[in-house]
Design a protein that fits this description.
mainly alpha, Rhopdopsin 7-helix transmembrane proteins, two-stranded antiparallel sheet, 11 helices, 75% helix, transmembrane helix, transducer
Length: 311
Amino acid sequence: MIMRVMNSSSVSEFLLLAFSDTRELQLLHFALFLGIYLAALLGNSLILSAIACHHHLHTPMYFFLLNLALLDLGCISTTLPKAMANALWDNRVISYQGCAAQVLFFVFFFGSEFSILTIMAYDRYVAICKPLHYGSLLGSRACAQMAAAAWGSGFLHAVLHTANTFSLPLCRGNAVDQFFCEIPQILKLSCSDAYLREAGALVFSVSLVFNCFVFIVVSYVQIFREVLRMPSEQGRHKAFSTCLPHLAVVSLFVSTGIFAYLKPPSISSPSVDLMVAVLYSVLPPAVNPLIYSMRNQELKHAVWKLFYNSF
């Protein structure tokens, strides 16, 4: 394995972790990732097109779902194309600027996505627990402001973490033990105590994520209390149908992220870390469209109408 000992001023490229050293397995990984990437592109693009083209889907719930689909596309497009190219060409190199861009965009999309998921929980809470105030609390202007706040906060976090991470002196080589540039792996290359500054910023971000998670949990406690009080079985079924996809997406997003960053050190190894990173960075963007379309009859009808009008 190629390893260069250098300081940050002379680092011009990083070496990403390869999925395999065997050429046949590299091509197999390329084909697998290509299939997952195309499925994610197709699923999220169909959701975007269906919501954009059908006026009856121009509601707050679908507006936030449109934002989620955009963020999913951005998230998976930040990591997977480079991993596919490296597997296809048997290459591990990523430029210093490319690595910084990966960190910036991944933190941006990842952070913004969790903010949007939090807002979507608020949307479901208002729709079910305060239906008479839904129009005033979630008007078009309020929805646009909340979405802008989610994207803006994600961007600010991304700039903060990228600037902190890449201002550190790097003297422990240039091999990143991950298939994409990930902040914790880059911090391992630093030999300066200044990495504590970025570690502190990460703790701050984790605390914000935890607060959002608590907000989502409290919202759903209130939602389920209200749903169980509904006298109509049809009303309960409709409420659950709109909530369960979002709850499933949040559960997938949070569980994979927690396992990636809070797993016990005893089970940590390069191969395990690699597989876990695939789970939390690749699986949710690819599976989210399927989760949202399974129980949502309006969305399924809109997607089928798109297909029908295309032929």
